[in-house]
Amino acid sequence: MTTDLDQLRAELLASIDASSGVDALDAVRVHALGKQGAVTGLLKTLGGMSPEERQETGPRIHALREAVTDAIAARKAALEGAALEAKLAAETLDMTLPADSVPAGSVHPVSQVMDELAEIFADLGFAVATGPEIEDDWHNFTALNIPETHPARAMHDTFYLAGDHASPMVLRTHTSPVQIRAMKAAGGHKPVRIIAPGRTYRSDSDATHTPMFHQVEGLVIDKGITLGHLKWTLETFLKAFFERDDIVLRLRPSYFPFTEPSAEVDVGYTLINGKRVIGGDPSKGDGGWMEVLGSGMVHRKVIAAGGYDPDEWQGFAFGCGIDRLAMLKYGMDDLRAFFDGDLRWLKHYGFSALDVPTLSGGVGA
Ligand code: PHE
User: Fold this and answer.
1) 275, 292 in Cβ contact below 8 A?
2) Which of 145, 209, 230, 258 to mutate to test the pocket of ligand 1 (most atoms within 8 A of CB)?
3) Is the CB of residue 295 below 6 angstroms from any atom belonging to ligand 1?
4) Domain count, the chain
5) Average pLDDT over residues 97-114
6) What distance in angstroms lies between residue 317's CA and the mean position of ligand 1's atoms?
7) Cα(330)–Cα(102) distance, rounded to whole angstroms?
8) Residue span of the structural domain in which 327 resides
9) How is the cofactor bound (predicted)?
């Protein structure tokens, strides 16, 4: 028995060592440890042994099984490591070689719209501001007058990051935390005029919602700012964006914790060949209203959280889904396709890298 076991061990270890690939190794594994395997067969003989015999032979068979199992695991790791090395070596790209075809990509509609927004608002004196996508709870909620127990927190379907922070970290649920960052950066004593385009995240997914989406925030802080400034700014922006003078706005009373008063803004559309087209008289034919953004006068508490004295400074803010703007302007109807990375879609809806939006040349396509 002893020599049998030693011989079997030597044979098995040799064939494990000799396996040149994962498949060959697996065949050895089945031969040794499978249902009909040699080692499995030995284990089965334990039942028929006398207690003395079992005490003597049992540990040896178990040791054999362990040695074979370990050797297979080690060989598998080595083979996989070698395969990865070979793959990495084979897939090396020489980035200095000249391209053998023109690049197939194009500018994504979301990028195009962001460039259009920057261009339109630059003309109105707005700078572009940014903030982190991994945001702390204070900037995303508390400073925006959304205290811990506020139901708006639940409405946002927030992705929380694991970890033990004094202020929990979240994937920002909107671009509004950039309001606070922009005010803080301006230091509490000079006007602020910014837009903040970027990625935002909510745990939500269907034809019109994706867990990652894009928003643009607008913020003006100055002295003597009124709702009239807000309405004029939005009207000027939407006319420039949709490249039509006959854009009609409707401000509907609404609620956001960080603005008071708050208004949701609808734009009028008309129906042309069954398609909703922004602009024209919404009361005619099958026209109607479409909600495009949220807005309002910045809440006193938010102005204070940004380091400004709310008795002296006022402001307005708005927030708008960029993906939705792109869909309305360029006629896509499924949001999910935006993030599929399908070159055929991009070929159809994408823009030339040379097609930079300018106010003089038109911010359209
Ligand atoms: N942050 C709000 C949202 O994501 C939009 C908004 C921004 C509303 C600024 C008012 C002012 O729904």
Assistant:
1) no
2) 258
3) yes
4) 2
5) 85
6) 8
7) 25
8) 109-349
9) Binds 2 magnesium ions per tetramer.
